[in-house]
Amino acid sequence: MTAPTGAESGQVTWRDPKRYLWLIGLVVPLFPFISWGLVTFTGLGVFWWTGIVLLYVIFPVVDHLFGKDSANPPDKALAWLEQDRYYRWCIFLYLPLQYAGLVTGCWLLTHGGLGLPDRLGLTITLGGVAGIGINTAHELGHKKESVERWMSKIALAQTFYGHFFIEHNRGHHVRVATPDDPASARLGESFWRFLPRTVVGSLRNALHLEKARLNRRGRSPWTVHNDVLNAWAMSVVLFAALTVAFGPGILPYLAVQAVFGFCLLEVINYTEHYGLLRARTATGRYERCAPRHSWNSDNVATNVFLYHLQRHSDHHANPTRRYQALRHFEEAPELPTGYAGMIVLAYFPPLWRRTMDHRVLAHYDGDVTRANIQPAKSRAILARYGKAEQAS
Predict the structure, then answer these.
(1) What is the pTM of this model?
(2) Dihedral (Cα; 371, 314, 166, 305), 10-degree rounding
(3) What would the pLDDT profile of 300-339 be if each residue is shown by its tens digit?
Protein backbone atom coordinates (compact mmCIF):
# COMPACT_ATOMS: atom_id res chain seq x y z
CA MET A 1 0.00 0.00 0.00
CA THR A 2 1.29 3.41 -0.89
CA ALA A 3 -0.81 5.80 1.20
CA PRO A 4 1.56 7.91 3.33
CA THR A 5 -0.65 8.15 6.40
CA GLY A 6 -3.30 5.48 5.97
CA ALA A 7 -4.38 2.28 4.26
CA GLU A 8 -6.81 1.68 1.46
CA SER A 9 -8.09 -1.76 0.57
CA GLY A 10 -11.19 -2.29 -1.53
CA GLN A 11 -13.90 -0.13 -0.02
CA VAL A 12 -12.03 0.28 3.29
CA THR A 13 -10.11 3.50 3.92
CA TRP A 14 -8.39 3.85 7.27
CA ARG A 15 -5.95 6.31 8.78
CA ASP A 16 -4.04 5.71 11.98
CA PRO A 17 -5.33 8.32 14.47
CA LYS A 18 -2.24 7.81 16.66
CA ARG A 19 0.29 8.05 13.84
CA TYR A 20 1.97 11.22 15.06
CA LEU A 21 1.22 10.64 18.73
CA TRP A 22 3.93 7.96 18.80
CA LEU A 23 6.50 10.75 18.59
CA ILE A 24 5.44 11.75 22.12
CA GLY A 25 7.38 8.72 23.35
CA LEU A 26 10.55 10.62 22.49
CA VAL A 27 9.79 13.03 25.35
CA VAL A 28 11.07 10.40 27.81
CA PRO A 29 14.75 10.39 26.74
CA LEU A 30 14.62 14.19 26.93
CA PHE A 31 14.04 14.04 30.72
CA PRO A 32 17.66 15.06 31.58
CA PHE A 33 17.49 18.02 29.20
CA ILE A 34 14.07 19.05 30.54
CA SER A 35 15.47 18.90 34.09
CA TRP A 36 18.51 20.95 33.16
CA GLY A 37 16.40 23.54 31.37
CA LEU A 38 13.96 23.91 34.26
CA VAL A 39 16.77 24.25 36.80
CA THR A 40 18.50 26.85 34.61
CA PHE A 41 15.28 28.79 34.09
CA THR A 42 14.03 28.73 37.69
CA GLY A 43 17.20 28.29 39.71
CA LEU A 44 15.44 25.53 41.69
CA GLY A 45 17.43 22.32 42.18
CA VAL A 46 14.26 20.34 42.84
CA PHE A 47 13.79 20.08 39.07
CA TRP A 48 16.67 17.61 38.86
CA TRP A 49 14.01 15.19 40.16
CA THR A 50 11.77 15.89 37.16
CA GLY A 51 11.94 12.27 36.01
CA ILE A 52 10.34 11.06 39.25
CA VAL A 53 7.62 13.71 39.13
CA LEU A 54 6.76 12.91 35.52
CA LEU A 55 6.76 9.12 35.97
CA TYR A 56 4.90 8.92 39.28
CA VAL A 57 2.72 12.04 39.34
CA ILE A 58 2.20 13.68 35.95
CA PHE A 59 1.85 10.55 33.81
CA PRO A 60 -0.78 8.88 36.07
CA VAL A 61 -2.83 12.10 36.06
CA VAL A 62 -2.53 12.49 32.28
CA ASP A 63 -3.53 8.84 31.89
CA HIS A 64 -6.71 9.51 33.85
CA LEU A 65 -7.54 12.73 32.01
CA PHE A 66 -7.13 11.33 28.50
CA GLY A 67 -9.01 8.10 29.22
CA LYS A 68 -9.04 4.99 27.08
CA ASP A 69 -8.83 4.06 23.44
CA SER A 70 -9.98 0.52 22.65
CA ALA A 71 -10.20 0.97 18.89
CA ASN A 72 -8.37 -1.57 16.74
CA PRO A 73 -7.01 -1.11 13.25
CA PRO A 74 -9.02 -3.09 10.69
CA ASP A 75 -7.52 -6.43 9.73
CA LYS A 76 -6.94 -5.20 6.19
CA ALA A 77 -4.70 -2.43 7.49
CA LEU A 78 -2.40 -4.62 9.60
CA ALA A 79 0.00 -5.52 6.78
CA TRP A 80 0.39 -1.87 5.83
CA LEU A 81 0.98 -0.88 9.44
CA GLU A 82 3.68 -3.53 9.83
CA GLN A 83 5.50 -2.41 6.69
CA ASP A 84 5.44 1.36 7.26
CA ARG A 85 8.99 2.24 8.33
CA TYR A 86 7.89 5.53 9.89
CA TYR A 87 6.88 3.62 13.02
CA ARG A 88 10.31 2.04 13.28
CA TRP A 89 11.99 5.43 13.25
CA CYS A 90 9.79 6.49 16.16
CA ILE A 91 11.57 3.68 18.06
CA PHE A 92 15.04 4.08 16.55
CA LEU A 93 15.27 7.74 17.53
CA TYR A 94 14.91 6.83 21.22
CA LEU A 95 18.44 5.41 21.32
CA PRO A 96 20.50 8.44 20.24
CA LEU A 97 18.42 10.65 22.52
CA GLN A 98 18.85 8.16 25.38
CA TYR A 99 22.62 8.18 25.05
CA ALA A 100 22.85 11.92 24.47
CA GLY A 101 20.99 12.34 27.77
CA LEU A 102 23.28 9.86 29.51
CA VAL A 103 26.47 11.61 28.39
CA THR A 104 25.03 15.02 29.23
CA GLY A 105 23.91 13.72 32.62
CA CYS A 106 27.38 12.32 33.36
CA TRP A 107 28.93 15.68 32.51
CA LEU A 108 26.50 17.48 34.81
CA LEU A 109 27.14 15.00 37.62
CA THR A 110 30.89 15.49 37.46
CA HIS A 111 31.30 19.07 36.22
CA GLY A 112 27.98 20.77 36.98
CA GLY A 113 28.75 21.83 40.55
CA LEU A 114 25.70 19.98 41.89
CA GLY A 115 25.14 19.14 45.55
CA LEU A 116 24.42 15.56 46.61
CA PRO A 117 20.58 15.87 46.58
CA ASP A 118 20.72 17.36 43.08
CA ARG A 119 23.07 14.63 41.85
CA LEU A 120 20.74 11.97 43.26
CA GLY A 121 17.76 13.57 41.55
CA LEU A 122 19.54 13.68 38.21
CA THR A 123 20.73 10.09 38.66
CA ILE A 124 17.18 8.85 39.25
CA THR A 125 15.99 10.87 36.25
CA LEU A 126 18.64 9.12 34.13
CA GLY A 127 17.46 5.80 35.56
CA GLY A 128 13.89 6.56 34.50
CA VAL A 129 15.08 7.08 30.92
CA ALA A 130 17.05 3.83 31.09
CA GLY A 131 14.07 1.93 32.50
CA ILE A 132 11.72 3.07 29.75
CA GLY A 133 14.62 2.34 27.39
CA ILE A 134 14.26 -1.32 28.37
CA ASN A 135 10.76 -1.15 26.93
CA THR A 136 12.26 0.22 23.71
CA ALA A 137 14.71 -2.70 23.81
CA HIS A 138 11.75 -5.03 24.35
CA GLU A 139 10.07 -3.80 21.17
CA LEU A 140 13.28 -4.09 19.15
CA GLY A 141 14.37 -7.42 20.62
CA HIS A 142 11.30 -9.28 19.39
CA LYS A 143 11.97 -8.44 15.75
CA LYS A 144 13.56 -10.72 13.17
CA GLU A 145 15.90 -8.16 11.63
CA SER A 146 19.39 -8.47 13.11
CA VAL A 147 19.96 -4.70 13.22
CA GLU A 148 16.93 -4.26 15.48
CA ARG A 149 18.05 -7.06 17.75
CA TRP A 150 21.48 -5.45 18.13
CA MET A 151 19.86 -2.11 18.80
CA SER A 152 17.92 -3.84 21.58
CA LYS A 153 21.19 -4.81 23.26
CA ILE A 154 22.48 -1.26 22.90
CA ALA A 155 19.38 0.10 24.63
CA LEU A 156 19.89 -2.43 27.46
CA ALA A 157 23.56 -1.57 27.98
CA GLN A 158 22.80 1.45 30.19
CA THR A 159 21.11 -0.75 32.80
CA PHE A 160 23.54 -3.71 32.54
CA TYR A 161 20.45 -5.82 31.89
CA GLY A 162 21.41 -7.38 28.56
CA HIS A 163 20.34 -10.85 29.69
CA PHE A 164 16.72 -9.61 29.49
CA PHE A 165 17.09 -9.97 25.71
CA ILE A 166 17.44 -13.74 26.14
CA GLU A 167 15.24 -14.55 29.12
CA HIS A 168 12.26 -12.49 27.99
CA ASN A 169 12.11 -13.86 24.44
CA ARG A 170 12.95 -17.50 25.11
CA GLY A 171 11.99 -17.85 28.77
CA HIS A 172 9.14 -15.55 29.77
CA HIS A 173 7.18 -16.05 26.56
CA VAL A 174 7.31 -19.82 27.07
CA ARG A 175 6.56 -19.92 30.82
CA VAL A 176 4.31 -16.86 31.17
CA ALA A 177 1.43 -17.13 33.68
CA THR A 178 2.85 -20.28 35.27
CA PRO A 179 4.61 -20.84 38.62
CA ASP A 180 7.78 -21.60 36.63
CA ASP A 181 8.08 -18.03 35.32
CA PRO A 182 10.06 -15.64 37.54
CA ALA A 183 8.52 -12.67 35.70
CA SER A 184 4.89 -13.66 36.45
CA ALA A 185 3.76 -12.32 39.83
CA ARG A 186 1.60 -14.50 42.06
CA LEU A 187 -1.58 -13.65 43.94
CA GLY A 188 -0.58 -12.52 47.44
CA GLU A 189 3.01 -11.79 46.43
CA SER A 190 4.10 -8.22 47.12
CA PHE A 191 6.27 -6.37 44.65
CA TRP A 192 9.08 -6.27 47.20
CA ARG A 193 9.06 -10.07 47.43
CA PHE A 194 8.65 -10.43 43.67
CA LEU A 195 11.62 -8.15 42.89
CA PRO A 196 14.50 -10.36 44.12
CA ARG A 197 12.76 -13.47 42.79
CA THR A 198 12.42 -12.08 39.29
CA VAL A 199 15.88 -10.47 39.15
CA VAL A 200 17.70 -13.62 40.28
CA GLY A 201 15.40 -16.03 38.45
CA SER A 202 15.58 -14.15 35.16
CA LEU A 203 19.37 -14.00 35.31
CA ARG A 204 19.63 -17.70 36.10
CA ASN A 205 17.22 -18.62 33.30
CA ALA A 206 19.03 -16.48 30.74
CA LEU A 207 22.37 -18.11 31.50
CA HIS A 208 20.81 -21.59 31.34
CA LEU A 209 18.98 -20.91 28.08
CA GLU A 210 22.05 -19.54 26.35
CA LYS A 211 24.29 -22.33 27.63
CA ALA A 212 21.80 -24.91 26.34
CA ARG A 213 21.63 -23.20 22.94
CA LEU A 214 25.40 -23.16 22.57
CA ASN A 215 25.72 -26.76 23.79
CA ARG A 216 23.35 -27.87 21.03
CA ARG A 217 25.76 -26.28 18.56
CA GLY A 218 28.78 -27.91 20.16
CA ARG A 219 30.12 -24.64 21.54
CA SER A 220 31.36 -23.62 24.95
CA PRO A 221 29.31 -20.95 26.76
CA TRP A 222 32.52 -18.93 27.12
CA THR A 223 32.40 -17.41 23.66
CA VAL A 224 31.59 -14.09 22.02
CA HIS A 225 28.64 -15.89 20.47
CA ASN A 226 27.03 -16.11 23.92
CA ASP A 227 24.32 -13.44 23.68
CA VAL A 228 24.28 -12.88 27.43
CA LEU A 229 28.02 -12.29 27.59
CA ASN A 230 28.22 -10.10 24.50
CA ALA A 231 25.31 -8.01 25.80
CA TRP A 232 27.08 -7.57 29.12
CA ALA A 233 30.27 -6.71 27.25
CA MET A 234 28.45 -3.73 25.74
CA SER A 235 27.68 -2.52 29.26
CA VAL A 236 31.31 -3.01 30.36
CA VAL A 237 32.55 -1.01 27.37
CA LEU A 238 29.96 1.71 27.97
CA PHE A 239 30.71 2.05 31.68
CA ALA A 240 34.47 1.94 31.03
CA ALA A 241 34.22 4.67 28.37
CA LEU A 242 32.20 6.89 30.69
CA THR A 243 34.70 6.28 33.51
CA VAL A 244 37.58 7.28 31.25
CA ALA A 245 35.69 10.37 30.11
CA PHE A 246 34.36 11.53 33.49
CA GLY A 247 36.52 9.80 36.09
CA PRO A 248 35.87 6.90 38.49
CA GLY A 249 33.58 9.11 40.56
CA ILE A 250 30.85 8.55 37.97
CA LEU A 251 30.62 4.82 38.70
CA PRO A 252 28.35 5.00 41.81
CA TYR A 253 25.88 7.14 39.89
CA LEU A 254 25.95 4.77 36.91
CA ALA A 255 25.23 1.89 39.29
CA VAL A 256 22.30 3.67 40.96
CA GLN A 257 20.67 4.70 37.68
CA ALA A 258 21.07 1.14 36.35
CA VAL A 259 19.41 -0.41 39.40
CA PHE A 260 16.58 2.10 39.31
CA GLY A 261 16.14 1.45 35.60
CA PHE A 262 15.81 -2.33 35.79
CA CYS A 263 13.62 -2.07 38.90
CA LEU A 264 11.28 0.12 36.83
CA LEU A 265 11.10 -2.68 34.28
CA GLU A 266 10.39 -5.26 36.97
CA VAL A 267 7.56 -3.29 38.57
CA ILE A 268 5.89 -3.22 35.15
CA ASN A 269 6.48 -6.98 34.86
CA TYR A 270 4.78 -7.32 38.23
CA THR A 271 1.59 -5.71 36.92
CA GLU A 272 1.35 -7.62 33.65
CA HIS A 273 0.40 -11.13 34.82
CA TYR A 274 -0.35 -10.76 38.54
CA GLY A 275 -2.25 -13.81 39.81
CA LEU A 276 -3.02 -15.15 36.33
CA LEU A 277 -2.49 -18.83 35.63
CA ARG A 278 -2.59 -21.07 32.59
CA ALA A 279 -4.39 -24.31 33.36
CA ARG A 280 -2.87 -27.70 32.71
CA THR A 281 -4.31 -29.82 29.90
CA ALA A 282 -5.05 -33.55 30.02
CA THR A 283 -1.48 -34.19 28.85
CA GLY A 284 -0.07 -32.34 31.85
CA ARG A 285 1.22 -29.47 29.76
CA TYR A 286 0.12 -25.89 30.26
CA GLU A 287 -2.58 -24.62 27.94
CA ARG A 288 -1.57 -22.22 25.20
CA CYS A 289 -1.20 -18.60 26.31
CA ALA A 290 -4.43 -16.71 25.61
CA PRO A 291 -5.65 -13.11 26.06
CA ARG A 292 -7.02 -14.00 29.50
CA HIS A 293 -3.48 -14.61 30.78
CA SER A 294 -2.32 -10.96 30.62
CA TRP A 295 -3.59 -7.81 32.29
CA ASN A 296 -4.29 -5.14 29.69
CA SER A 297 -4.91 -1.42 29.75
CA ASP A 298 -6.26 0.82 27.03
CA ASN A 299 -5.31 4.08 28.74
CA VAL A 300 -4.14 5.94 25.70
CA ALA A 301 -1.50 8.21 27.24
CA THR A 302 0.61 5.43 28.76
CA ASN A 303 0.12 3.30 25.67
CA VAL A 304 1.62 6.05 23.55
CA PHE A 305 4.58 6.51 25.90
CA LEU A 306 5.18 2.73 26.11
CA TYR A 307 4.53 1.76 22.48
CA HIS A 308 1.34 -0.20 23.18
CA LEU A 309 3.02 -2.40 25.79
CA GLN A 310 -0.29 -2.40 27.66
CA ARG A 311 -1.94 -4.32 24.81
CA HIS A 312 -0.04 -7.19 26.32
CA SER A 313 -2.33 -10.05 25.31
CA ASP A 314 -1.84 -9.46 21.60
CA HIS A 315 1.89 -9.12 22.21
CA HIS A 316 2.00 -12.60 23.76
CA ALA A 317 -0.16 -14.02 20.99
CA ASN A 318 2.00 -12.37 18.30
CA PRO A 319 5.44 -11.56 19.77
CA THR A 320 6.93 -10.28 16.51
CA ARG A 321 3.95 -8.00 15.72
CA ARG A 322 5.00 -4.36 15.74
CA TYR A 323 3.59 -2.08 18.41
CA GLN A 324 1.45 0.04 16.08
CA ALA A 325 -0.55 -3.03 14.98
CA LEU A 326 -1.27 -4.50 18.43
CA ARG A 327 -4.98 -4.98 19.15
CA HIS A 328 -7.39 -4.74 22.07
CA PHE A 329 -9.12 -7.95 23.21
CA GLU A 330 -12.50 -7.74 24.93
CA GLU A 331 -11.88 -11.01 26.79
CA ALA A 332 -8.59 -9.85 28.33
CA PRO A 333 -8.72 -8.72 31.97
CA GLU A 334 -8.41 -4.96 32.28
CA LEU A 335 -6.37 -2.99 34.78
CA PRO A 336 -8.18 -0.13 36.55
CA THR A 337 -5.69 2.38 35.11
CA GLY A 338 -2.53 2.50 33.03
CA TYR A 339 0.88 1.24 34.05
CA ALA A 340 1.88 4.70 35.30
CA GLY A 341 -0.71 4.52 38.06
CA MET A 342 -0.35 0.78 38.68
CA ILE A 343 3.38 0.96 39.42
CA VAL A 344 2.69 3.53 42.14
CA LEU A 345 0.16 1.15 43.72
CA ALA A 346 2.61 -1.75 43.44
CA TYR A 347 5.07 0.00 45.76
CA PHE A 348 2.42 -0.09 48.53
CA PRO A 349 1.31 -3.74 48.95
CA PRO A 350 -1.86 -3.04 50.99
CA LEU A 351 -3.13 -0.64 48.31
CA TRP A 352 -2.18 -3.09 45.57
CA ARG A 353 -3.98 -6.01 47.21
CA ARG A 354 -7.07 -3.88 47.85
CA THR A 355 -7.10 -2.87 44.18
CA MET A 356 -6.13 -6.10 42.45
CA ASP A 357 -6.90 -9.20 44.51
CA HIS A 358 -10.66 -8.97 44.08
CA ARG A 359 -10.14 -8.43 40.34
CA VAL A 360 -8.15 -11.66 40.13
CA LEU A 361 -10.93 -13.42 42.02
CA ALA A 362 -13.61 -11.99 39.73
CA HIS A 363 -11.59 -13.00 36.67
CA TYR A 364 -11.80 -16.61 37.87
CA ASP A 365 -15.51 -16.40 38.73
CA GLY A 366 -14.78 -16.56 42.45
CA ASP A 367 -12.69 -19.74 42.23
CA VAL A 368 -9.34 -18.64 43.65
CA THR A 369 -7.87 -22.12 43.13
CA ARG A 370 -7.58 -21.26 39.44
CA ALA A 371 -5.19 -18.39 40.19
CA ASN A 372 -1.39 -18.42 40.41
CA ILE A 373 -1.05 -18.20 44.21
CA GLN A 374 2.03 -17.31 46.22
CA PRO A 375 2.94 -20.68 47.86
CA ALA A 376 3.79 -19.16 51.26
CA LYS A 377 0.33 -17.57 51.42
CA SER A 378 -1.65 -20.34 49.79
CA ARG A 379 -3.36 -21.60 52.93
CA ALA A 380 -4.35 -18.10 54.10
CA ILE A 381 -5.64 -17.08 50.66
CA LEU A 382 -7.65 -20.26 50.19
CA ALA A 383 -9.12 -19.89 53.66
CA ARG A 384 -9.99 -16.25 53.13
CA TYR A 385 -11.88 -16.90 49.92
CA GLY A 386 -13.75 -19.97 51.14
CA LYS A 387 -11.73 -22.63 49.38
CA ALA A 388 -9.67 -23.90 52.28
CA GLU A 389 -11.03 -27.41 51.84
CA GLN A 390 -9.34 -27.59 48.45
CA ALA A 391 -5.86 -26.81 49.81
CA SER A 392 -3.40 -29.53 49.04
Answers:
(1) 0.92
(2) -110
(3) 999 999 999 999 999 998 898 999 999 999 889 999 999 9
